Amino acid sequence: MTDFANDYLDIDTLLTAEEIELRSNVRGFVDERIRPHIGEWFEAAHFPRELAKEMGRLGLLGMHLKGYGCAGRSAVEYGLAALELEAGDSGIRTFVSVQGSLAMSAIHKHGSPEQKRTWLPGMAAGELIGCFGLTEPTAGSDPAGLVTRAVRDGSGWVLNGAKRWIGLASIADVAVIWAGTDEGIRGFVVPTGTPGFTAIPITGKLSMRASIQCDITLQDVRLPADAVLPEVTGLKGPFACLNEARYGIMWGAMGAARDAYQTVLAYAQHRTQFDQPIAAFQLTQHKLVDMVLEIQKGTLVALQTGRLKDAGKLRPEQISFGKLNNVRTAIEICRNARTILGGNGITLDYSPLRHANNLESVRTYEGTDEVHTLIMGRAITGIPAFA
Ligand SMILES: Cc1cc2nc3c(=O)[nH]c(=O)nc-3n(C[C@H](O)[C@H](O)[C@H](O)COP(=O)(O)OP(=O)(O)OC[C@H]3O[C@@H](n4cnc5c(N)ncnc54)[C@H](O)[C@@H]3O)c2cc1C
Question: pTM of whole model > 0.90?
Fold first, then answer.
């Protein structure tokens, strides 16, 4: 029997038993460990560091990477986990993305065997936290404009510069820092205890409050020769990692949207006005139906993208389709969901406005709507319109 309220098109029939089992494990973790506390964490601007080890035990950190203690799961499984985590909160899914798809994936893709052995097992277990420093105060959408420099110093390196918006940096054990060198942009593996490295959390955020982002200062940070990621030079290094994270985001956004929709479906069936449950009004049903249409479409986009990724055929331009469509759609769904809650919708007792606010960050990082529109425009026309 089709569960029209929750899986209108029977999308679950496209998933394997293993995928459904993994999804239900992550859903259980979110229900038990995130959902009961997330309102408090969001209000207090608190990131629950202690969950990292639990997520490590569940195999969620670097879960699509192979070896070095990583779970080696498929792209679709990683996507399903991202969806469930973001149904809890974007901040929690962001932690998993920064740890696995950015910091760990940079070391896994571009690092030496020694760097991989040193960092990846502890990061997969959640015992060590990683961050990924690309964005700078004056270089965001255009990372080619970064001004952080690494210069050779005998056999080693000295880093100077600043990074902004770097997730988890103040609690991280290791930072992957991208810097200009005489040879082009290189990545450096920087233990955060290295003298000259400081990370200060950004305060006053209206979005992503159960999560940490920092300003990093690098002042005469001295590193040994083997701190550089040996396997890559140029922006293709960070972009390969960003593509991993962007892929997870398209799934995650549908999780936030689904949670907002399910929250207001239940509310509308019980809340009575004009002697009717508000779900009985045509205007409310119109809103709910629009949500179902877009959640189902967005989930199919994510699934098709994941199947392409697992087949080794996914193009970065196709990731832009999913990231742009699914995040933009999810924000609209969460905002519309908020209206069904009336005044109660502006409190942390209900998830939709928290999700909508979080998604403002999600639409901005890993390529803004405009950047992904430009990537798709270039793919369609063959003409770059970035400048
Ligand atoms: C919560 C959060 C977490 C983050 N985590 C990390 C992290 O862990 N590591 C990291 O390195 N970075 C991180 N970032 C930074 C993020 O990647 C940048 O914010 C993003 O790339 C946008 O850069 P910007 O904020 O400098 O905006 P800008 O690049 O200044 O853009 C401002 C506006 O101009 C538009 N714009 C820019 N160029 C064009 C163009 N060519 N045509 C049309 N419009 C254009 C943009 O789309 C946007 O609307 C994070 C950001 C946030 C908010």
Answer: yes
Packed helices 316-340 and 236-270: angle between N→C axes, nearest 10 degrees: 20
- H or E segment at 184? strand 184-191
Per-residue model confidence (pLDDT) at position 134? 98
Please, which contacts does 108-113 make with residues 24 or more away whose CB atoms are closer than 8 Å?
108/62, 108/65, 108/68, 108/70, 109/231, 109/232, 109/237, 109/240, 109/241, 110/187, 110/229, 110/230, 110/231, 110/232, 110/237, 110/240, 111/189, 111/229, 111/230, 111/231, 112/226, 112/229, 112/230, 112/231
Q: What is the pLDDT of residue 184?
A: 97
- The residues near 347 (Cβ < 8 Å, ≥ 6 apart) are none
What residue ranges line ligand 1, CB within 6 angstroms? Answer: 98, 132-135, 140-141, 165-167, 208, 213, 361, 364-365, 368, 370-371, 386
Question: Measured between alpha carbons, how far is 39 from 351 in angstroms, rounded to an integer?
Answer: 8
Atom 37 of ligand 1: nearest residue by CA position:
141
Residue count of the chain = 387
Residue 215 Cα to ligand 1 midpoint, Å, equals 14
Question: How far is the C-alpha of 340 from the C-alpha of 243, rounded, in Å?
Answer: 35
Q: DSSP per residue over 15-83, as a string?
A: S-HHHHHHHHHHHHHIIIIITTTHHHHHHHT---TTHHHHHHHTT-TTTTS-STT-----HHHHHHHHH
Residues classed as catalytic: 366
Q: What are the backbone dihedrals phi and psi of residue 124, each rounded to the nearest 5 degrees, phi first?
A: -60, -35
Lookup result for tokens 């055929």: 313
If you take atom 24 of ligand 1, which residue's CA is the nearest one? 140
Tokens of 133: 């420093």
Q: Is 256 helix (H, G, I), strand (E, B) or coil?
A: helix
Q: What is the pLDDT of residues 283-340, one digit of tens each?
A: 999 999 999 999 999 999 999 999 999 999 999 999 999 999 999 999 999 999 999 9
Token pair 């920092």 is found at: 214
